[in-house]
Amino acid sequence: MTAMLKVEALEKIYFRGGPFSRKPGFRLAADLTVEEPAIVGMMGPNGSGKTTLFELITGSNAPTSGRVMVAGRDIHTVRTDQRDRLAIHYHQSYQVRHFQSWTPNALMQPAGSEYPLVHLFDEPQFNAQDGYIGFMLDFFRSLRARGRLVFLCVHPNERMHLEILREICERFIFVQHGTVTPIPDYQALLAHGPARAYLGNLLDGRAA
Q1: Would you state the pLDDT for residue 178?
Q2: Are 81 and 88 in contact (CB under 8 A)?
Q3: Cα 73 from chain centroid?
Q4: In this structure, which of 4, 69, 90, 196 has its CB flanked by the most CB atoms within 10 Å?
């Protein structure tokens, strides 16, 4: 069976300095596979590479090396006007991220899908007003029930955020200093040292 998402030896390096003294500045590296529909929680410190990873998955950012396969198609070889039929990135207030490519679409392959298969929500707003959180969780679950892969990138600065992730996410990704670590479930997230340090006081008095 073709995996919904396969990130293979993916690397993105941002260089600093001039054209004759370029040195690596920031490096993101990722290897992960999600075979079937799921809701995946992602977290990590600011500047760790989370948004960059989302941009690489949707094809709005070009990798230094490696590739991203969505439903068996290399996202970076798909027509730019159809990439959001495979993977779509919503930034904060559910604004869709856009991108450009220098390669003409006529030379690229079609998406082969009419509706996004992978939905990446970058810091979605969980308004505490009556019913809103429940509405959003039902929305994420409905996407999964329709065979979609959903990523929720959240900065859990309140216990509420952590409880939401615990309730709805089946697996997790922790990103720190450009290192992407797949984590199989919530208990493994709590056992992951860097994640525990990042969550800090939010874990005090938790019901594990």
Answers
A1: 96
A2: no
A3: 17
A4: 4
Digit-coded pLDDT (tens) for 140-176 = 999 999 999 999 999 888 888 899 999 999 999 999 9
Q: State the amino acid at position 143 in one-letter form.
A: L
Q: Report which of 208, 58, 61 is spatially closest to residue 196, judged by C-alpha positions.
A: 208
Q: Which residues contact 115 (CB under 8 A, 6 or more apart)?
A: 85
For 93-145, the pLDDT digits (tens) are: 555 555 566 777 878 898 889 899 999 999 888 777 767 888 899 999 999 99
User: Would you mind telling me the total number of residues written for the chain in this entry?
Assistant: 208
- Burial group, residue 151, by CB count within 10 angstroms (0-12, 13-18, 19+): buried
Ordered domains of the chain (ranges, CATH): 5-200 (3.40.50.300)
